[in-house]
Amino acid sequence: MASVAVDSLIMKLARLLNEEVTLLRDVRTKVEGVRDELCLIQAYLKDADAKADTADTSSHAVKVWVNQLRRASFRIEDAVDFYIIKLAPHPSQRRGMLCKFCLVITSVVPRHRITSEIVNVTASIRKLYEDKQALGLSPSSEQNVAERIRYDLRMGSHFIRDDELVGVDYAKNLLIDWLIHGEARRTIISVVGEGGLGKTAIVRNLYNKHKEDFDCYAWITVSHSFKEEHLQTIMQTLYENDGKKYPVEGIREKEVDKCNLTQKLRDYLQGKSYMIVFDDVWEINFWECMEFALPADTNIRSRIIITTRDRGIAEFCQRSAPVHIHELKPLPADDALKLFLLKTFQFDHHGCPQDLNDLSQRFVKRCKGVPLAIVVISGLLSTKKKTVSEWQKVYDSLRSKFSTDPHLRSFYLVLLESYHDLPYHLRLCLLYFGLFPQDYSVKCSTLIRLWVAEGFVNENEMFGDQTLEEAAEDYLAELIRRSLVKVSNVFVNGKVKSCRVHDLMHDFIVRKCEELNFCQVVSKQQFGFHEWTRRISIQNIDKSAFIGNDQSFVRVRSCLSCGIEELSESVVKSLFSGFNLLVTLGLEDFPLDHLPEVVGNLLNLKYLSLRKTKIKTIPKSIGKLQKLQTLNLRDTQVLELPMEINKLVKLRHLLSYSFGSKEHWQHLLGFRLNGGIGGLTDLQSLAMVDTSTANGDGIIREMENMINMKKLGIVELSEVNGSSVCNAIKNMPNLCSLSIKAAENCGFLVLQAIVDPPANLQRLYLNGPLQRLPEWIPKLKHLIKLRLIGSRLAEDPLPKLEGLPELLELHLDHYCESEEVHFKCGWFEKLKELTLQRMNTLRTLKIDKGALPKLEVLRLGSCPQIIEGADAIQNLEALKNLYLIDMPIQFKDDIALNIPYNIDMPIQYSNDIALNNPKDIDMPRQFANDISTPLKENTTLDISPPLLPPPQLTPPRLPPRRGQLKVKVLQDLASAAIRSLSAA
């Protein structure tokens, strides 16, 4: 699609003309000229893209035209980038007339070459502009494109039988309850979900069965744009369903304006109960058109049903009507398989052959529970021979046939419809998922930093003081809201932690990426890539794939690695020296033990991630990367950064820390600096700085200049530097996350000097002894997570902390020397996770009824003296997961006797010890290595070391109690505890 390349280039040229780089006069003139030419042709691109996507023979010439325009855009971008790197004078170079004169003389030939290239490409663009009429292209809007490529899949949805609606009983019953048994007033029911989930089919089924329960009813297929004509369509449908003839003659002239149509519809519906379905709504302003046309009579049961892929549309309606939102989910595995077999073997009385069971499961898994995907693939398989070899061919060729096979194309067009509905910057963001492997969950923070580095964020559309990262977060939220991106994992506060796209969407994205030369996957099966490819993703290859390869990487802008076994020294050097225009380089888990000096030649680089590599040092040439925004050295062996790091004045995120020999907070290692960092005023993330060096206090003082800081991590802090840290924090009004670890045997963490803490602080991690709890901590009204590790307070601070209004996670590790911990009624009303660990003096745990009312996860570990408190667990009404790590046998025995059981879940004996995010900074290894993976629903009790031989007895069923908790007892349960359980 040419619009993606051209729109991106126009934004880049506009940014270039406004940036600090001074373009020589002739180059600036040419750049302005090509920008103007591109703007002229821009209005025709959406129409061209739509015709190219129809994939019929008549659009072949349009496809060629689109491809030529895309390559012309790439040539312009390459020419401009080469100029910026090689010729554009840097601000530090513009000193004196002599320097300017030398610059002009030495750049004569290169300037001539770049201007000639731009002139040639501009002529090509002008010729393409002239050819638009011969191709029948015309200016068009986004909605016209969407209308043209829209494939009418909803016809079949209107006639689906009940037995074909598999796995939707819960959704149907819920919708019927809202539809029939809800309150007597105008109510909106919205069914939300990605394309292909069966929204139309379910709602149509309910509409056909229950429309006669209302005085008036109508079904309106909206598609993309809601216009005044839809008001007249509603009127006509209501008349026809009411057995009346709609008086068309003489009315349309009177009702040409929206106001008259609205009034006429209100008058017709006044005093009547009605059910009106608006199927396939795309625009949020839809409700603005209908809000006043549909009366809200009191004591009259009226229902407005909306099907949409965008949750934001349903939420927008809440401003003037009660709204019920049901987010339709993919089918569970069993129901998905049932639907697959029903459709594939509907005319085969013998059913699925035994040898096709495995492939059937694989096809179903590929569909990720999306009914339309299951139906179209089943339709394709129903036409094939029922043999393993034939089905395997279909499975292997799904991606290549996705847009062309008549069976699969219907689902392809559903995805294409959603894609075309996106503004171009969101298309770029969605296409970026093509750089990651199928079913890969990418961390949102990583994705956002990549988008910012790539320049996907349109600064003209940012609000107020919004940062680029915050704008990119909004982009991701919109893709999730539009049901295009799936949430994989969330933080305790519900914020998205990682995300992915489902398999068939990934197939669609990869195919689009190949068509657009947006990116290509480099693997064992296919190492070569197209000469115009802008991004490459290296997945699952070894060093043999590079041997004898002479392809140029000169046009590549991004390179991400997702699995390489081994590389030679020469290959590593050639990779770093060949990417002249590289913008992002992600080499996580890359077989790299050192970073070559030639990395300094990547002058265009904005993002560099070497996480989980084996590198030990960073070369001084890193200082040449003047555009670098992100440097991620997490989980590497780098313990020191060169002085040249202070030259990276555009750096926004500097992350370098590991966990030494043990992945636990006590073994957290940061990085040392040889020079100051006071000039890095754009920094938003800095973790973890080792301040134990001779210049540690000076480094801390320079942090006072970092007013944009949001995440700060300091390790090895001495007592004498505590006041300096407090002064620095005072100048960080946007700080959201603060982590401080004290140096061993260096006294206390002295943090009392903060009077007005950052108002937005959400995460606070303090690791080290405290004389007393800093008075500013209870003032943190937005604090979500608090960790006190090794505080060793003489007095229990819980009475001062219980009033934190937003606290969701509390981690207390050797935080006080008290013999009793008492949670009183009303304390910590929102807390969801609580950890009590290494409490050597703790003997009694008390939890009053009404305390911790929303606690879902409780971890108790290494409390050798505890003798009372097992019965207090019963007061935790919302508890779902209970972990006991290295706790006394008697306490575990008491827990086993006092915990409520679920009669449907007998005790199971297992030694299934699982690792749970061992390298995640938020999950200490002391927990991660010892706990077993909890069950997903209800509550799991995991009791770990020491391991004992498995008991040779059948676990008894225990009597039901509260019916909320499931129990999973590991093999370490002592024989005494087993006897107690049996007796119970």
Automatic annotation (TrEMBL):
Composition bias, Pro residues: 946-958
InterPro entries membership: Apaf_helical, Disease_R_plants, LRR_dom_sf, LRR_R13L4/SHOC2-like, NB-ARC, P-loop_NTPase, RX-like_CC, Rx_N
Presence of keyword Repressor: no
Domain NB-ARC residues, every copy: 170-346
CDD domains reported for this sequence: RX-CC_like
Region feature Disordered, mapped onto this chain: 939-961
Keywords carried by this UniProt record: Nucleotide-binding, Plant defense, Repeat
Domain Disease resistance protein winged helix span(s) in chain numbering: 435-509
GO biological process, one term: defense response to other organism
Record-annotated Disease resistance R13L4/SHOC-2-like LRR domain positions: 574-881
Pfam families: LRR_14, NB-ARC, Rx_N, WHD_DRP
Domain named Disease resistance N-terminal: residues: 5-94
A molecular-function term among this protein's GO annotations: ADP binding
Name of the protein in question: Disease resistance protein RPM1 isoform X1
Highest classification ranks of the organism: Eukaryota, Viridiplantae, Streptophyta, Embryophyta, Tracheophyta
Protein's gene: LOC107496045
